[in-house]
Amino acid sequence: MERVGHVNIAMVDDLSTNGTSKPKALSTMERARQLCGSTVSFHNIQYKVQLNTGFFCRRKSVTREILVDLNGIMRPGLNAILGPTGSGKSSFLDVLAARKDPSGLSGEVLIDGAPQPPNFKCLSGYVVQDDVVMGTLTVRENLRFSAALRLPSSVPQREKETRVNQLIRELGLTKVADTKVGTQMIRGISGGERKRTNIGMELIIDPSVLFLDEPTTGLDASTANSVLLLLKRMASQGRTVIMSIHQPRYSIYRLFDTLTLLVSGKMVYHGPALNTLDYFAEIGYACEPHNNPADFFLDVINGDSTMAKMHGPEEVDLEEQSNSRQSIEEHLLEEHRNSSYSRETRAELERIVQAKGCVAQGPGARTITYNSSFLHQFHWVLKRTFQDLMLNPQTSVAQLGVTIFLAVIVGAIFFRVKDDQSGIQNRMGALFFITTNQCFSTMSAAELFITERKLFVHEYISGYYRVSVYFLSKILSDIITLRTVPAVVFSCIVYFMIGLKSTFAAFFVFTLTVTLVACTATAMAMAISADQSVVALANIFLTISFVFMMIFSGLLVNLPSIMDWLAWFKYFSIPRYGLAALKINEFVGLKFCENATAPPSRDNCSASIAGMICTGEQHLDYLGIDYTTWGLWENHVALALMALIFLVIAYLKLRFIKKFT
Which of 273, 396, 398, 560 is deepest in the core (most CB within 10 A)? Predict the structure, then answer.
């Protein structure tokens, strides 16, 4: 049991004492002797889910069986799980890999006759169907990231680097080792090379059991064949490879050592792949000489087979060939239960159970374990996050470019604002636009956790890093790179083009306020989108929230005149706090009339001329804004508290989102 997930340092090529000589490759026979795959046995696996149907009062819960009474053994070699769409292949694979939600799951999976360890998901390798790899990094950088976080801290960095280089050679990635994997904006490596990179990231820990969910998805026939040849080579070296696959070509099918055929979550064959055609012929289904076995099995299951169905040597008429799919499933299931393969499997499972003592009725507790410290994880995840931001022009260059463009436009519209009555309106308009623009420009933060959801979930379950490490890395990189820097650049351009107060203290408060508004709005965007799976839906919620806040910002409506039962909404408006701070910072000390006296008291309007507002303090009094020292800084405190609350909400959502299928 201790062998599962153990890092086989002996596989790492020996280096000379000075580290300059080239590593010596181990032969296939030497590798085979060093590798020892685990035997995976599964006992009475049942999996059910609750589905809610209907609306409101007619809503009802329906139980659906996904997997039904599955029993069998997967030994070292290439083990394939085959079946039509919806047959439960991926669910079965997730159960074996301990990545299925325990709710509704019963039965047990044993590894070498011992209970599956709670952290089995961190010790085994799992290659998901949709490639999850950082596209802005190179193949070598992705493998290096996996080695840094998944190999124990006791392994020297030199040996980790050697392991990465060895995997690159074994996977045939030498020519593209320093090429970016590729994104929608960046042309990268091919699909087959991308798949091999994903496999390499799982092979870093040298797992004795490697799971793959439909590894040929999205690949052409030739590329898929090369990937399966790679898996066959690894299986022949002693590793246990378990994979689900939909409809492989014959050159792929003949590589399988064992085959498990599922129909509607039920097992209709489990045994040697080479004997499958003979078994089907014995139960009455003969495959045409030049037909692909995988296509033949699916045709039989779906009731679309045109080949002869025989009972003994006599052929039956065509009407019996058009049996319903349900009757065919029942027939296949009954034949398998009575087959010699099933009897032999049950006998061996009983021996395993007797050796263990007993089989539990449900899955055990599941935990995540890590091979590195918090600070080590934080260093590598933060480094990768900053690299991804810097190398992705869609998020870095475009963001800064749009910020500069808007700053120049706003500065040109309100250029050199005057100290007269028009200056009051222009200042109000400029400050209002600046605060609302900072809010709406943060909507890109909604994509922060959504676009990387699959990558995060896979790496977290596999034990790469803690949720707190990932969260802090994303927060720091986004706030510093995409919020703070653009806010400072925007302030430097707008402030001097508009011609606001020409003092360093006023400029500092202005920049601080704009940055705080951007950071608080970003935190709110994260809190709303952290548990969402669709960017468009998160953007809708954000837009509604910002529009609602904008109404209570203090420009579109006079806040003191709002009815009491509605007035409390202003305390949840981010633009209100930002706009109030900017107004106090700008209007205190300003004079808009030539004969205006010193700032009047709140009860004295002697400074007004012909009903005009002549001082900035008068204007703030009219708006009901407290322009004392605390009146200014209470807005910043409120923004900081709101940002903290939103970040806590975002973290809790990220911490407790569903991470198992």
Answer: 273
